[in-house]
Amino acid sequence: MSEARARFVMQRMRELVTVDQEAGCLIARGRRIFLLRDRTLQQLVTIGSDMFGPAVWGALYEAGLRSGRIFGQRVIDQIGPDPGLVMAEILGSLAGSGWGVFRVIYFEPRHRIVIRVLNSVFAEPGRGYTQRHFPLGHLAGVFEVLFKRPYRGEEALCIGKNDPFCEFVYYPEEGEKAAQYQ
């Protein structure tokens, strides 16, 4: 990140985040937030996997899907349904929240959407497996409310599996899941 960009981000953080000393919490845009070290997040996911096995990945995807629907609808309500504006706001928000840098590589919502993720807080290089199920589901939820049809997300590449970056590929759901939106 360039020095100018870092200054801009820090200025925005000072504008958006306040500390409520009496309540002992951080407030951003009128909502309570909390900070979590990246390593702590990764350990929580690893412990969940150790305790519950592969079921934890489905639970994380579903939690991401549900939170993405809520977040996507909130953004649409605030700025309107223009896909370009919504995507810019969503991806900028994820980066501003410390999730990493999300870049649109391919965007044809009727067929496929490809998102590349750099410097992800959810993946550790060389782990041999991925921990990215929550953000994968989160963006699927955003796409669902934005395009009014369900999307299935797959992780094509991951730094956790020694790939050079992480990449998500989204496809519109067909069949029964899509029929509910007709």
Structural summary, described in words:
There is one protein chain. The chain is built from 6 helices and 7 strands, in the order αβββαααββαββα. Helices cover 48% and strands 22% of the residues. The model has no long low-confidence stretch (mean pLDDT 88). It starts with a helix and ends with a helix. The strands form 2 sheets. It has a 4-stranded antiparallel β-sheet, covered by helices on one side. The protein folds into 2 domains: 35 residues, no CATH class; 142 residues, Muramoyl-pentapeptide Carboxypeptidase, domain 2 (2-Layer Sandwich), CATH 3.30.1380.20. The longest helix is centred in the middle third of the chain and has 25 residues. A hairpin with a 3-residue loop joins β4 and β5. The protein is globular and about 50 Å long. With 182 residues, it is of the alpha+beta class. α3 packs parallel to α5.
* CATH hierarchy: architecture of the largest domain: 2-Layer Sandwich
Number of strands: 7
Average pLDDT figure: 88
Strand portion:
15-25%
Could you name the CATH topology of the largest domain? Answer: Muramoyl-pentapeptide Carboxypeptidase, domain 2
Task: Provide the helix percentage.
Answer: 40-55%
CATH class of the largest domain reads: Alpha Beta
For CATH, the homologous superfamily of the largest domain is named as: Trafficking protein particle complex subunit 3
Cα-atom Rg, whole angstroms? 17 Å
Coarse shape = globular
Main β-sheet description = 4 strands, antiparallel
Helix-strand category: alpha+beta
- Terminal residue distance: 43 Å
- Listing every helix as H and every strand as E from the N terminus to the C terminus, the arrangement reads HEEEHHHEEHEEH
Q: What is the tally of helical segments?
A: 6
Cross-sheet strand order for the largest sheet: 4-5-7-6
Oligomer: single chain
What is the domain total for the residues? 2
Unreliable sequence segments = none
